[in-house]
Amino acid sequence: MTPFSYHKPNSVSEAVNLADACSHFIAGGTNLVDLMKENVVRPKRLIDISGLGLNGIHPTPGGGVLIGARVSNADLAWHPMIEQQYPLLSDAILAGASPQLRNMASTGGNLLQRTRCYYFYDTGTACNKREPGSGCPARTGMNRIHAILGASDACVATHPSDMCVALAALEAVVHVQGPSGERQIPFADFHRLPQDTPERDNQLAFDELVTGIELPPPMFEHHYRYLKIRDRASYAFALVSVAAALSFDGEVIRQGRLALGGVAHKPWRDLAVERMLVGQVPSEALFTRAAQTLLQGAQPLRHNGFKVTLAQRAIVRALDDAACGAADGGARP
Amino acid sequence: MSAISSNGAQTHPICLTLNGQPRTLQVHPWVTLLDLLREQLDLVGTKKGCDHGQCGACTVLRDGKRVNACLTLAIMCDGADLVTIEGLASGDVLHPMQRAFITHDAFQCGYCTPGQICSAVGLAHEGRADNREAIREQMSGNLCRCGAYANIVAAVEEALPLMRDGIEPQRGQEP
Q1: Is A103 close to B28, i.e. CB distance below 8 A?
Q2: pLDDT at residue number A333
Q3: Domains recognised in chain B with CATH numbers
Q4: Neighbours of A333 (CB within 10 A)
Q5: Which candidate, B110, B101, B98, places its Cα nearest to that of B145?
Q6: What is the percent of chain A where pLDDT is above 70?
Q7: Are A33 and B75 an interchain contact pair (Cβ–Cβ within 8 Å)?
Q8: CB-CB: which of A6, A36, A103 is closest to B67?
Q9: Is the pLDDT confidence value at B3 over 50?
Q10: pLDDT value at residue B10
Q11: Looking at this predicted complex, what is its ipTM?
Q12: How many domains does chain A have?
């Protein structure tokens, strides 16, 4: 690890004023410390945010929930309010990483984890995300785990999070604070597509700190499914994952949400596809049409063409499970 | 107080409880908890497997919760209550999880065993595993290259009710 200095501020404003282009905030450290060991990331200063509070889970006046950025993945997944009102989020979190990592990793840090593209991690190779302008060996190399949607010539990396796929489907809002004040970023706008600046994963400035994640009032506690397809039964990143959430008026879908992991540089949503579901009675034909439409623009690479079919089937299955209320054993109203 | 070490780099003081004993230590910011335990404190029961949070050999208990020591910066453990494999037994009386691992022959080479046992104790504290399938899923952060998984699951399954019944020895008791 390249030596660095360590700071532990006592307030959010102190923390963001300490930050500069050579510093990193650290919470759980599960991804950052690993990246520092590999010399992929070499901060001159680490700013430890464990003294800032930010570790509560509280109801909001609007009927939602505000989750502090430092709440651990395990504490979030097992919080009674989250388990009961946002079980999709609990399921997604518990599908990710290992129990040890979930005890360490933070809610805010989960949003900021970096891609697991082999080339990004290997400092002996080029990578536009790690060294802008150096090239993307993944585009023509070993790209089985890479993106099939929204990629660019510069970068075909995927975002590795499970939690973020559920947060995208739930339309969470990211609370952020910088030296000039606070702002709130809708989840769909937080992460970005690589375009020609893949070194930027998201919209945060270097001196902005994620302070919390706000969930809107619960709507999908009965009909939801987080389906994760991976190379082994546990403790592996998603090849494809699907967060599906439905609400009903009688037999008819009132609202449908669909977010995919493992397929793009950010959790992937397609609002046109979600609108296709509204006002319809669940059926395999409907879900198949939705899945095919969502994958219409897919651009698979040499080794990841299987993801297109896999994603389509996973979408149909996740929507069907959500419609049946299979995840919580309940029945559709 | 911060100090300058022999190589000219700044060290910082941390106070923590390690296997029941209060300790004050000086650490460089870039030293992981795993390297602190093994290199500075000679507690080599905690193993370095992958050093990237992928194998679980370095699992220790921090405030009762299982964590990967290889991805934990020691400097961020100020105030923590840490228990390593060396701190589980009470004198010569083994922890029920240690006994169960022996009873079920839940290891071959033994390299992953300290991490497996600490992880299983953390699993018991979490209280979320009540069947074999759940144990398998919740032990997935610990790899065993010898493939002793079947016996590991059996050992954990046997020890869980013993720990629930309070047969766990008090931490940090000296013989």
Answers
A1: no
A2: 34
A3: 3-87 (3.10.20.30), 96-164 (1.10.150.120)
A4: 11
A5: B110
A6: 98
A7: no
A8: A103
A9: yes
A10: 87
A11: 0.95
A12: 1
